[in-house]
From TrEMBL:
This is TetR/AcrR family transcriptional regulator. It holds the Pfam family TetR_N. Keywords: DNA-binding, Transcription, Transcription regulation. Residues 42-61 bind DNA. The keyword Nuclease does not apply. It comes from Roseibium salinum.
Amino acid sequence: MTDIAEKPHGRGPVRAKGQETAGRVRKAALKRFAAAGYAAVSMREIAADVGVRPGALYNHFPTKQDILKDLMLSHMAELLSAWDEADFPDGMDPLERFVRFHIRHHLERADEVFISYMELRSLEPENFALIEAERRRYESILTGILEDGAAKGRYSIDEPKVATRAIIAMLTGIPNWYRTGGRLSERNIEDLYLTMVRKAVAPLATREPAALNDTQKVPAL
């Protein structure tokens, strides 16, 4: 009886060590994939970064594809959870809330964002379907905001799902070029992109064509 009772206590440290190693594998793979691309990275390189033998990786991730799938699913799970828990002022316009949330969340995770979008092509069909389903869940949040706003006359949108993907693509591209310490702060970026998004979906009657100055005028063909 004593031996049986003691066995569960012995598994705790082993399990904790395994989880720690798996976390280190994820971090090493994330850095490698973001820097060199999924296809150019080997399991041996990841193992070297973690400080274990290549064979030890297979105790946590059977293949490199499993690591990529895990990284992408974790990114989407964290994104959806963060949206549910986001703290914004009561009464904030839903579109503003989405834009500001998306920018803030993604600017802090440049590597994750890069991999989650650029390495979709590297996923095997079954894994691609899993990730795509989670992406659609997130996209449906913005689509719902746009559809509700259009029904109330606040927005003019022919295809809410197309508008959703266009807006998300625009916002997600920010981490590719934005660097802290420049002329524009993160809040400046939020304000600028929010203005562009609002103009893109504004009712036609409220859209004013921008006047071109002499240097911007297009010459006649």
